[in-house]
Amino acid sequence: MPEAISLTLGQPDFKVPDRIKKAMIDAINEDKTEYTSNIGLFQLREHIAQYLLSFKIKYSPEEICLTIGGSEALLAVFTALVNAGDKVLIPNVAYPAYDSCIKLLGGNVVNYPLNQDFTMDISSLENIIDNEKPKIMVLSYPSNPTGATLSKDDRDKLHSIILNKNIMVVTDEIYSSLCFEEEYYSISQFSDIRDKVIFVGGFSKMFSMTGLRLGYLCANKEIMKSVLKVHQYAVSCAPSISQYGALEGLKNCLDEVEKMRCEFQKRRDYVYNRLKLIGFDVVMPKGAFYIFPSVKKFGFSSEEFCERLLNDAKVAIVPGSAFGPGGEGFARISYSYSMEQLKDALDRIEKFINDKL
Ligand SMILES: Cc1ncc(COP(=O)(O)O)c(C=O)c1O
Predict the structure, then answer these.
(1) What percent of the chain has pLDDT over 90?
(2) What is the CA(353)–ligand 1 centre distance, in A?
(3) Angle, helices 339-356/254-278, rounded to nearest 10 degrees
(4) Which part of the chain is the Aminotransferase class I/classII large domain (predicted)?
């Protein structure tokens, strides 16, 4: 539908910072096109370790592996850890790949509920862990699709649960550079549970380089040994040119990342305020670049709402049901689009709600 405005994509609309582009062109011209070590360029792993320290997350370069996007990191970690029949806890709602990866490996997905504002429902979570005895739980903050972040209080409660129970955590923090709160909280900030935690990060969103396919995972050396077997035989290494690009990004482009974050925050405020004025029930997102309004009061299922919005108002957004059963009655809007596009789309949504409903 060429005349439609799409607010569906999970990729920033910014250009890759020029210095990153130049570093990659230089790397090609200097013939840095060979395999890197399986685990990735040492210098880049050193810079990632340093960058993570700014979030109070401590990993040594030996505990960091470069992957083909966060996607490969997730599949490699799950492949290393999940045996057929193992139970894995996944937030309801979440990025759809967790569910698919676990099923691909013959694992059993157990969804854990979230509160109405998409924060952790800690007491339900504890009950589920006691009853279901899952091997792994997935944490995903800042969240796709809700934009929720982990609060200090929830982080601390989670810490004591993980410390006391026999469970491992895969924490997907691919949107960590896009947090609109003063402080960043992560379960990977505790040293006493670090052997139970695997951290997944990446550069797709941070440097707006989704197609360059570079992510990473961090784990203790024992877990890393197993994950590396999967990574090595699946892909050998992450793309060398992208690694040189990300290295330049971490060295010299963090101010551009900050500019992108501020721009996303402006868009977040704009989209939230417009949706509120139109009459949506919506929670203010605190990170990433998604907002997840409820469409329940309009009397349609998620799919019906999105289909009607597309056909009648020519605006494409994603039905919440795509992110798990808990997403029914919601829709995901990505605000990784220009202010002009966002304004045009919200004008259309406003007219659609006023005229049709
Ligand atoms: C929560 C989350 N994790 C991981 C990914 C994978 O990203 P990539 O493979 O580009 O690093 C995405 C992409 O949208 C995501 O939203």
Answers:
(1) 99
(2) 32
(3) 20
(4) 4-349
